[in-house]
């Protein structure tokens, strides 16, 4: 959606084009009426010409009045470049999200951007592990139902918290590189604590994913032979039986084969 300033100038341009168009049309029709009426006198066609010319001139006058009224209003202020860029990005994201594969594409773009932003920091490796674990859990999520649903909710909250923690670790690490020597010890201690929390949190998330995979495996594992294998075996036996019956019927219908068999 365009901003207020853009809409204002678009409306101004539309009114100007409309006023000019109706002015030209009214002038043409009026001129035709002035030229044609003296030759044939006043008749029904001349009344139609005059009415058309009058209507066009009236519409042209209204359009010029609307144009002057709008032009007299102050134009809305221009958007800040940062705000305009943010709105453009929002429109682009909304357009991509409407596509069938849009949400997946946007998620991958955000993941790559975040990984690039953390490159060169100690948070990059835990972030990559968290990404792998989150993708694995996303593949299992549709089967984590019933008693496992609270674990899925907790995993989503932990994922957001750990990603925020990774950005904090990277921010403190970058600040540590720029800090003067006397200010580095407290920052180093804070960085060490945050990095330890990130490492332990990612390890706990990975253990959760492993447990979720075990839950899915146990939930889907049947006792004995899998039902699909049993059904395939039954279908195979049925096809073998039908093939044997068809072979016997073909042998009975072939006299030469029946004689040879005797």
Rg (C-alpha, Å): 39 Å
Secondary structure tally, helices: 9
Largest sheet: none
N- to C-terminal distance: 90 Å
Give the percentage of residues in beta strands. under 5%
Shape: flat
Average residue-wise pLDDT: 79
Number of strands: 0
* Secondary structural class: mainly alpha
Helix share, percent: over 70%
The low-pLDDT segments are none
**What is the H/E order?**
HHHHHHHHH
Describe this structure as you would to a colleague.
With 262 residues, the protein is mainly alpha-helical. Among the domains are: 4-72; 118-220. Helices cover 83% and strands 0% of the residues. The protein is built from 9 helices and no strands. The chain is flat and about 100 Å long. The model has no long low-confidence stretch (mean pLDDT 79).
Features:
262 residues; mainly alpha; 9 helices; 83% helix; 0% strand; flat; transmembrane; membrane; Rv2743c-like
Question: Brief description of this entry?
Answer:
By secondary structure, this protein is mainly α. Helix content is 83%, strand content 0%.
Q: Layout of helices and strands, plus pairs?
A:
Blueprint: H1 4-40, H2 44-72, H3 81-97, H4 102-117, H5 124-140, H6 149-178, H7 184-220, H8 227-253, H9 255-261
Transmembrane segments: 21-41, 47-65
Keywords: Membrane, Transmembrane, Transmembrane helix
InterPro entries: Rv2743c-like
